[in-house]
Design goal:
Blueprint lengths: L6 E4 L20 E6 L2 H5 L5 H20 L3 E5 L10 H12 L3 E5 L4 H8 L1 H4 L3 E5 L8 H8 L7 H12 L40 H13 L16 H19 L19 H6 L4 H13 L5 H25 L18 H4 L5 H13 L4 H15 L3 H11 L5 H12 L16 H7 L20 H12 L1 H4 L6 H9 L2 H17 L10
Parallel strand pairs: 1-2, 1-4, 2-3, 4-5
Helix pairs in contact: 2-8, 7-12, 9-12, 11-12, 12-17, 14-15, 15-19, 16-17, 19-22
The protein binds flavin-adenine dinucleotide, ligand DLZ and iron/sulfur cluster.
Length: 520
């Protein structure tokens, strides 16, 4: 007699799609789907209030959709009596409740959680099957094979492989559509005076979201972030509407203004879809197909379409492959020996540096900042001020609604901090105030002067840049992409050099370190 006991399928907070590998092929009459709000996940860093709200609300909506479609869902709320507080503890309790014959789970996106799951076969009496997460285009083993034997893991090379694999933006002769693989050179326009990008759709919190907002206000009162402005899509229908708006109104200018920064604006022509993609509410390949269709229908130019597709099948896939290739270990890399604590102003926004204050404001209000704000303002500051990678990782992981360690860590450790010693980037993305001035409207109303190099009123990025170069000379001067910078430094007179270093030291001494318990 075949067992009539059910199959238990735990679905994690970022696995909210019916096409998930653990749900495919399951039948409604012998499956119990388990979803768990647990204290450990909500507090391993002190996530932004909007991030917790987004994940719990999206989980509750997904559970309701599954139930409406006839699935049995065992949903454990954070405040349920006896909630064990961890995935393993809750799965153990669910096994007691349902006595399943098997447990099927799609692998976790994060190493920490996957480690816990891998202990389940020994811990639990039922058979445990761990399935690959095939929502990604490139599997972990495919990325390992691609990386093997390569001296440098150049994203552009990986990206071209993904273009060939998917056929996206490829013509019938196997050549890139439009003639080029990459149109980045056309995508570096500074903001135009008076530009007015169409608004990103807002999704009013419904009853389910309101209930979660009350829970978060009550239980996570000391976490960073504003809840009044919560407007993220929490269902796949809402996420599709957000994607519709992007393809109808903003993709056309996505490319040229991808790197532009405007005070008061963290969306510009960006898609604002990362939260939905990472949760599973949107399929990344479908988005690329829609972008390609926009090019073919003539509603968006090739540089915008290729730029968007490169972020998804290039950067996003590369980052995920890179994470699994280098974990564990990436989280403790500190190859530039950066030891300074994160400044308090990262949590309060109280700094006279107008660019940083604006990026921290949007991070607080929206749990979002766009890529160049994360990379060239916040990230560049952390790099050249020598902030400890552990502090920076905790901050980025906590404050962004789209942050999971698999995507945050390679971006922080590899892309902004060079803490991995150059596994991801060929050189540190260090820049003076000049770059920010060129690509934004921040500087003209800043209390610091971007054209001043040294002294109290000089833009701190200018002196920090040289301080960074000087203190890392031994490590960086052998890098041929940086060597030229040292020739410039060496040509400066001793007095000028001393001015730079003293200005930077005075600025660094003025920073108040953050209270440690903000993040943890
Ligand atoms: P768009 O500009 O519209 O880009 C389209 C999509 O491309 C994004 O939705 C995202 O899915 C993908 N994408 C673009 N760049 C990257 C990248 N570098 N890595 C991975 N995916 C990318 N993205 C996250 O999803 N989660 C994070 O925790 C995260 N942390 C970051 C930390 C740092 C230091 C930096 C520099 C970047 C980080 N990013 C992260 C990447 C990027 O900044 C965000 O994906 C983007 O800002 C989200 O807004 P959007 O959806 O409007 O993106
Ligand atoms: C980020 C997060 C938070 C805040 N809370 C939960 C939760 O209570 N339950 C859950 O299933 N997932 C949560 N997540 C997301 C997880 O940390 C993440 O989805 C995966 O575990 C990735 O490995
Ligand atoms: Fe930022 Fe410097 Fe410009 Fe001020 S002057 S906004 S600190 S880059």
């Amino acid at each position: 007699m075949p067992s009539t006991n059910p199959i238990l399928v735990p679905v994690l907070g970022d696995q909210l799609t019916r096409t998930l590998s653990s749900l495919r092929g399951r039948t409604k009459d012998d499956t119990i789907i388990l979803m768990m709000e647990v204290w450990d996940e909500a507090t391993y860093v002190k996530h932004h209030k909007q991030k917790i709200t987004l994940i719990f609300s999206a989980m509750r909506h997904f559970a309701a959709e599954l139930e409406d479609a006839g699935w049995s869902v065992d949903y454990v709320k954070l405040d349920d009596e006896n909630n064990a507080g961890s995935f393993t503890g809750e799965v153990a309790r669910a096994i007691e409740r349902h006595d399943p014959r098997e447990l099927h789970i799609t692998e976790a996106s994060e190493w920490r959680v996957q480690q816990a799951i891998e202990e389940w076969p020994d811990k639990f009496a039922c058979t445990v099957e761990i399935l690959p997460d095939d929502r990604f285009i490139c599997s972990q083993s495919e990325f390992r094979n691609w990386a093997e034997g390569r001296k440098a893991l150049t994203m552009e090379h990986f990206y071209r492989e993904m273009r060939k694999k998917t056929g996206i933006l490829m013509d019938e002769n196997g050549k890139p559509k439009g003639g080029e693989w990459n149109y980045d050179a056309d995508n570096r326009e500074p903001p135009k005076e008076g530009m007015d990008p169409p608004a990103v759709p807002d999704f009013e919190p419904d009853e389910i979201t309101q209930e979660v907002i009350e829970l978060v206000k009550d239980r996570f009162a000391d976490h960073f972030g504003n809840l009044e402005t919560f407007r993220w899509p929490v269902t796949s229908d809402e996420a599709e509407k957000a994607a519709d708006a992007f393809f109808a109104q903003r993709i056309e200018k996505f490319g040229p203004y991808q790197d532009a920064m405007v005070h008061g604006s963290d969306d510009m022509y960006h898609s604002m879809l990362s939260t939905s993609i990472n949760l599973g509410l949107l399929d990344p390949l479908e988005l690329c197909d829609r972008a390609q269709a926009a090019y073919e229908e003539g509603t968006a130019p090739i540089n915008s379409v290729e730029g968007f597709i490169r972020q998804i099948i290039g950067w996003r896939e590369y980052i995920r492959g890179f994470y699994w290739l280098h974990m564990p270990g990436l989280e403790s890399d500190n190859k530039l020996n950066a030891r300074r604590s994160l400044p308090e102003f990262f949590w309060t926004g109280e700094t006279d540096m107008r660019c940083l204050a604006d990026c921290i404001r949007s991070t607080h209000e929206d749990a979002h900042a766009h890529h160049i704000q994360r990379l060239m303002v916040l990230g560049n500051f952390c790099l050249i001020a020598g902030i400890d990678p552990a502090d920076v990782q905790d901050w980025y992981l906590a404050v962004y609604a789209d942050a999971y360690q698999w995507v945050e860590l390679p971006n922080v450790s590899g892309m902004i901090l060079f803490a991995d010693g150059g596994k991801l980037a060929t050189k540190p993305y260090a820049a003076s105030g000049n770059y920010i001035n060129k690509m934004s409207d921040y500087c003209k109303e800043c209390r610091y002067s971007v054209s001043k190099k040294t002294g109290e009123n000089a833009c701190p990025f200018n002196s920090l840049y040289w301080h960074f170069m000087d203190r890392n000379r031994e490590r960086l001067s052998k890098n041929h992409r940086v060597a030229r910078v040292y020739s410039t430094w060496d040509r400066m007179g001793d007095e000028k050099k001393r001015d730079y270093l003293e200005t930077a030291d005075a600025f660094l001494d003025s920073l108040t370190p953050a209270q440690k318990d903000w993040a943890r």
